[in-house]
Amino acid sequence: MKHSILYMMAFLFMAVCSCSSDDAVDAEAPVVQFPLEQLNVDLNTVDNLPIIAVIQSKAGLAQVNIDINTAEDGVIHYKTITDFYNAHNYSLAESPEYKVGYTSVTVEAIDRQGQKVTAEMPITVKGIMARPVITFNPGEIVYDEMEENPVIPRTTFTVESEAGLKSVEAILVSKDNQETLKKDEELNGVDSYAFDEMIEYKEGDKGVKVIAIDTYGNATIATLPVTYKIVPVPVVTLDAKGLSAESGKDVNFPVSVTSIRGLKYIDFFLVEGEKTTLAKRVTLSGEKEYNKSVAIKLTQATSHVQVVASDGREGKESSAMRPVFVDMRVATANIGSCPLANQGHKDYENAFGMFSFKDMRSYTVDYALESADNAKNIDFKFYCFGGQAIPRLYSMDNQEKDSEFKGTNGNLKSIAVKNQTRFKIVNDDFDYDHATVASIKKINAGSISTSKLTPFKVGDIIAFRTGSTSAAGAAKVGVMKVVNIIDRKTLGSSNATANILVVEIKMPTK
Amino acid sequence: MKKILYNISLVGIFMMLLSSCDLDLQTDYDYSQKVDDPHINMTAWEYVASNEDNFSLLKEALEYTGVDEYYKQTEHQYTFLLLNNTAMKAFMESKGVTEISSCDMQELKNLLLYHIVSGRYSSYGELDVEPRFVITMLSGEEGLMTMNVWKNPWQAAVGKIVINQTGSNSKAHQCKSVTTNIMPTNGVMHIFEDYSYYKK
Fold first, then answer.
1. How many CA atoms lie within 13 A of A73 on its CB side?
2. Which CATH number, 3.40.50.620, 3.40.50.300, 2.60.40.2470, 1.10.10.10, labels domain A133-229?
3. What CATH class has A22-126?
4. A91 CB near a chain B CB, below 8 Å?
5. Residues near B172 by Cβ (< 8 Å), separated by ≥ 6?
6. Which end of chain A is more exposed for a tag (fewer CB within 10 A), N or C?
7. Superfamily name and number for A235-326
């Protein structure tokens, strides 16, 4: 008996000793704490928080179960944990694959004494939002100049966003660059966006690119195709050579026009100084070609005729101009200087020294000396002075150098009639290219008074007045342009003064 | 008299020489590691109040916001992440103020609540080397925090308590303790020279 009591006491002592201090007898149940009252999960983001819970257990944890409660699939057991670094204070952070329909998470803690505690934390899961949807209306813009009345429609599109819009940008994409048409960067999460603008597309435009970004940063890029079909403008072809005509009378003006789209009209304008006057309109009905001469009346002030052809597109007309010489003779002539005056030059036609306004050509010294009538037909002579070959024009009555103009039987001093032609350089006062009878008449004839014009150069405009005995008529005023002075090297002459003067002459006939 | 003093001195010197020649050789000694007792017989508040050189700003802030109640109570065990004057000045500088009383009350309170953790977390087996979430006194997502202890081989870092180790808690700011495991009567204290905050 005494031994039994001793054995029992020993057993009780051992039993008490076997209980570790960690596993406190009758310890409080575990405490499960969630740092968040509710876990809000957004599947559109990548930084969702894990399920976090801290479990404190005085007795020490034996097992922790994590269950996920769903709206449709009931309870899903997620995980059981039995291994703890610190069984008295355990922290869990689990990141399940969140799904729409998760409603809460239940954490069950079981301590070493078998005490169970459960705690639940609600979960909301926001599903994946669709990207912004861009809808164009119309879905394509086609501007075709071949159509009768092409119209550019308004550019409209809408953007719908489930998640809300952050920004929308419309960019005009052209062949060579991109230009932002509109950019709204502070849309503050609106669900829809509308764009309605009149965009004047132009040649080379390819489309309108729209970039819509929602509040999650998801972007949708869509492009409205733009086709801008252009048609070449009409082609007007005119003869570059000037057309001579009489004022007040119809002149047949030849014109050649082609058009891919078809011609609507051809206008003929008279260019009179800085003014243009519509002389005639030929209305057409879509002809692809027009090759005719059109009768128009010109005035003495008309320097050019401008032809404007249209295929019906405003601003896409094409034009060309042709010079006209109304009541005016125009000619280009060669005049040889003193050494060439009687024999001319083999390479240049009629490059003699004596010039006739009546015939618009040069003659030999022999011709001038042959008779009085011939002498009347000579208005001036060309001379080059010294080694520098300084060019001079001499009236026939200025005989300073006549002894050097030698004919077969004498020199020019013996000419029977000496026309008193006069010259004046009018570079700054006269528009030679648009010279007309009217503009020539404005030159003060009295101011043309030089019988010896020196020096002059290529490009100079020289006004002249004929003498009273000139075969071209008395006191006729005209202009000539120094087109070229061909030097002796070009002519292959050893004489420095052997030059050929090339002039274009405009001389009214009325 | 002089003779008597002379004789006494001779006897003294003789005795000293005699005793110095009688020392034993030093015996072997086995080194046994032990840690100083980290326990302090005072509450966290009393510790802060008695170390004003380091915690004058924290003390002022705790009183200003009323968060000092956590430091004073003894019913619950907390882990106090003490912000020393350097840390508090860094916080005030970030807010553009120079005095505690100029701080936004709620911001300051949130800072202090964030640095009080429910339960005891010392490096004596209570913290893992892996960061674990803990419950701070700041509720909601802003209150999320992780803690762990460094036990890497570098002597300078070993044993440091780390809050919000980089990558463990979104973009929360990582801080390392400068002093650890001070045990007041109401929990554990770790001292920091920088303040932490949660950032998503």
1. 10
2. 2.60.40.2470
3. mainly beta
4. yes
5. B144, B145, B146, B164, B196, B197, B198, B199
6. N
7. Immunoglobulins (2.60.40.10)
Query: Which residues of chain B lie closer than 8 angstroms to A91, CB-CB?
Result: 132-134
User: Domain count of chain B?
Assistant: 1
Please report the ipTM that was assigned to this predicted complex.
Answer: 0.78
Q: Is B144 on the interface with A (CB under 8 A)?
A: yes
Tokens of A195: 């764009």
Q: For residue A290, what are its two tokens?
A: 């027009």
CA dist A382 → A339, A359, A376, A499, B139 (Å): 10, 17, 17, 9, 112
Partner B contacted by A56 (CB < 8 A): yes
Measured between beta carbons, which residues in chain A are less than 8 angstroms from residue B113?
none
10-residue stretch averages of pLDDT, chain A, 510 residues long: 48 42 68 95 92 94 97 94 92 94 97 96 95 95 85 94 95 94 94 95 93 94 93 92 90 95 94 92 95 94 94 90 94 95 93 96 96 97 95 96 93 95 94 93 95 96 97 96 96 94 94
CA gap B103, B64 in Å, rounded: 10
CA distance linking residue B178 with residue B84, whole number of Å = 10
> Per the structure block, which two tokens stand in for A267?
């206008």
Residues contacting B187, CB < 8 A, separation 6+ = B44, B76, B77, B78, B79, B80, B120
